[in-house]
Design goal:
With about 475 residues, the protein is α/β, with parallel strands linked by helices. It is built from 13 helices and 19 strands. A hairpin with a 3-residue loop joins strand 18 and strand 19. The N terminus is likely disordered. The structure holds S-adenosyl-L-homocysteine, iron/sulfur cluster (SF4) and FE3-S4 cluster (F3S).
């Protein structure tokens, strides 16, 4: 047998053993009752959380749980986000609801995990206000889920109050990357692949570095092996995930750049499309632009969060680029990849934002011509430097600016829409249209949606489609 030297490999083996142990117990229970246990995951937040939920799902399916689409299940998990305050409030609402369900469902388990659980105040609130929760874990120890279920089941024997049986396992940070555990994919033909965990950027408004820990890149070999296995399994499109993919490899020895990683992925047979998210402007290298310009597989879409167009605010936000740097970067990208679609994130109402600062943002939106943008009202996150700034913007002023920004973004989207009208483009067919069963829905390389008539056997294929008509956010197409 291969000697296990690395603690991470040791952990993989340990967890797989626990998963198998539980699997046997669940099989025995199934023999007695004839009923399979069900699970349901509610996922909040970004693609990082969606990917984590796939890992959670993989472990649960391996144990023997069957997925169901409502919270009326034997095991309900909330994978939380805390990037803005309303994200937290939504979770408390769901917990109130599941608490009532649990009263009528003996043996039901409720777990809460994700970014919100990395904050002490939120955990304390759950312990006191929602004592029926069975398991609490965080962003660093998802791989331990089977072990936590096992402990929770063992705690059942100690009796006492429900809250005494709660299992809480929270890590402040970690340098562990536990590979090769089960995981489940939402789509057979496209998959998210983590390349960097955590974030070291400490933008002054942002909670993510505190809840996701320090930046850690996965080894090139682990990533390539995972993508090769995905390709063998029929995956055609990968989405590489990290809070800042452009800083990939900084902590690897020897150092590897994101552009180099992309070139390795490009060689993998079967993979036809490569996407990535998110690109921090400060780390987007000319090397990457050059690779994007020549690549046959990297998609023609770049999500490049601006946050603000004011160099003054960008400095206070700790973004480490100026308005001019951003515009220059966009120029270089557009020159190298003329048909690129650019999207962005913008925050309105950051502390101290003046009308002049805001107009700088509008100016960048006008100059860049984003295809679309996620716009956010600044939300105070305690623990971040911006939360202590004493010049918070009044809500009504921020809201008014937010509406003006939306108008500007809509104008920009409308201008960008229809660029590819009357051309033939490759489309990855993703699903049957939710509104009209005779139509299929797919995506262009630039991420734009296309609806067109076709048979569902085409799902997962990349096919040429004539873009007959632009409808703003999507095209009506005709397969050729
Ligand atoms: N790593 C990514 C962003 C992750 S968070 C990046 O650097 O671009 C997603 C978005 O949420 C951010 O781009 C930002 O626009 C927004 N956001 C983060 N913290 C916020 C806050 N306190 N208030 C409002 N929006 C926030
Ligand atoms: Fe947050 Fe900035 Fe890190 Fe993005 S790069 S996750 S905005 S701290
Ligand atoms: Fe939210 Fe965590 Fe993502 S805070 S935005 S789910 S990294």
């Amino acid at each position: 047998m291969k000697k296990i030297e690395n603690t991470n490999e040791f952990e993989t083996k340990r967890q797989l053993d626990i998963i198998n142990e539980l699997k046997k117990e669940y099989e025995a229970e199934f023999k007695r009752t004839g009923i399979n246990k069900t699970y349901h995951i509610e996922t909040f937040g970004c693609q990082m959380n969606s990917r984590d939920s796939e890992k959670i799902s993989g472990i649960l399916k391996q144990i023997g749980y069957i997925e169901t689409d409502t919270e009326d299940a034997d095991f309900v998990l909330y994978n939380t986000c805390t990037v803005r305050e309303n994200a937290n409030n939504r979770v408390y609402g769901r917990l109130g609801y599941v608490g009532r369900l649990k009263k009528n469902r003996p043996g039901m388990l409720v777990a809460i995990c994700g970014c919100m659980m990395q904050e002490t105040a939120a955990v304390e609130k759950i312990k006191t206000s929602y004592p029926f929760v069975d398991i609490i874990f965080g962003t660093h120890n998802i791989f331990k889920l089977a072990e936590l279920i096992k402990t929770r089941r063992e705690n059942e024997t100690i009796g006492g109050k429900q809250s005494d049986r709660m299992v809480i396992d929270l890590w402040k940070d970690t340098d562990m990357i536990v590979e090769s555990l089960p995981n489940d994919r939402k789509y057979p033909f496209k998959a998210g692949v983590n390349i960097v965990f955590g974030c070291d950027n400490y933008c002054s408004y942002c909670i993510v570095p505190y809840v996701r820990g320090r930046e850690r890149s996965r080894n090139v070999k682990d990533i390539i092996d995972e993508i090769k296995a995905l390709a063998d399994d029929g995956v055609k499109e990968v989405m590489l995930l990290g809070q800042n993919v452009n800083s990939y490899g900084k902590n690897l020895n020897p150092r590897v750049s994101f552009a180099q990683l992309l070139q390795e992925i490009e060689k993998i047979e079967g993979i036809e499309r490569i996407r990535f998210m998110t690109s921090h402007p400060k780390d987007l290298s000319q090397e990457l632009i050059d690779v994007m310009a020549t690549s046959k597989k990297i998609c023609k879409h770049l999500h490049l969060p601006l946050q603000s167009g004011s160099s003054r605010l960008l400095k206070i936000m700790n973004r480490k680029y100026s308005k001019e740097d951003y515009l220059d970067l966009v120029d270089r990208i557009k020159k190298a990849v003329p048909d690129i679609s650019l999207t962005t994130d913008i925050i309105v109402g950051f502390p101290g934002e003046t009308e002049e600062d805001f107009m700088e943002t509008i100016d960048v939106v006008k100059k860049v011509g984003f295809d679309s943008a996620f716009t956010f009202l600044y939300s105070k996150r305690s623990g971040t430097p911006a939360a202590n700034m004493d010049n918070q913007v009044e809500e009504n002023i921020a809201k008014e600016r937010f509406d003006r920004l939306l108008d500007e973004i809509q104008a920009s989207s409308a201008k960008a829409a229809g660029r590819d009208e009357h051309t033939i483009q490759d489309v990855l067919v993703e699903e049957v249209n939710s509104q009209n069963e005779d139509l299929l829905t797919g995506r262009l390389s630039n991420n734009m949606l296309v609806h067109f008539p076709g048979d569902k056997s085409l799902i997962g294929d990349i096919i040429p489609v004539y873009l007959k008509e632009s409808k703003g956010f999507y095209y009506i197409g005709e397969p050729v």
